[in-house]
Amino acid sequence: MEKEDILKQIDKKYNDLGIPVDAMLEGLLHSKPVNYWDYIQTSPLLSLQTQRTTLPDEKVFIMYHQINELLFKMILWELTQISKKENLSADFFTARLGRVSRYFDMLTTSFDIMGEGMEPEQYLKFRHTLTPASGFQSAQYRMIEFASTELINLIDYRFRTTIDQNTPYEHAFEHLYWQAAGKDHSTGEKTILLKSFEKKYKDRFIRFMKEYNLTNLWSRFKELPKEDQKNINLVNAMRHYDHTVNVTWVMAHYHAAGKYLNAGKKDVEATGGSDWRKYMHPKYQRRIFFPELWNKNELKNWGISNLEGCKTLTGL
Ligand code: HEM
Fold it and tell me: Model-level pTM?
């Protein structure tokens, strides 16, 4: 664009806003050039790794969780764009989902940073200072789920028949699959892990559930013209995302957790207190965002046969 045109547009922009353009230009004359560290905010970002113990490997634990939370934020950013997009096309959907999948692939393939990156002896010491906290309390992880699928697919299988479109959100919330990890197995009482999580986030989750009820990935997919719903690139992107989040990542997490919680060859209790072997394995929970995009055999083998599940389709 020509300099004159730029100046004209700046003039118009600030006139429309009722801001004197001369003052703005003078401000520009005195403003400091931007630096990398100011723009990326490296100082605040790098000052957030506060340990609770003196054990060096706790730093790895904290930082890897923080990296995960940053990537969760990037994922939610893209999911929101699909959710809010007017005149959504298969190409836009596929491209944004591709971004999301690359982020989740990164989370999955990097899990060895956790699994291999700490001395179990150190972990087994510093974990005591974390009880009853757990990654279970990651709000962004739950929001990714709400933004990805219809609520019914996040409901504990035992209660699915009691829930439909008319069920109040509050009731659905109480029957989400993850409630199981936050209850005492023998009494059914909510644990401190779940109670504190709900105290902090329940209201926000209910608002989010409402907001994404009809704008989650699956609802938006079904709004597309029938032809687009058969678009092989889009269907493969949906399947890849579903399998990465609900099988590959879950298995990487399960193996990393098993390494530490079974380091003495005998399972120890998880910091969050769940029956973790059962709770964490995808073959028990069978979380599936887009069940209609998988065939009978794939559904039957969900979480059991890894390769079968992520097969790329070549035609529909
Ligand atoms: C040594 C590393 C890790 C161990 C031992 C571990 C262990 C566990 C366990 C046992 C649970 C079940 C709930 C409980 O009783 O606490 C859980 C849940 C969870 N963790 Fe981890 N975890 C590890 C690393 C991570 C990392 C790096 C993340 C990334 C943010 C993460 C995110 C989550 C999430 C989102 C859940 C809830 C999953 C669900 O509800 O199915 N965990 N973790």
Answer: 0.93
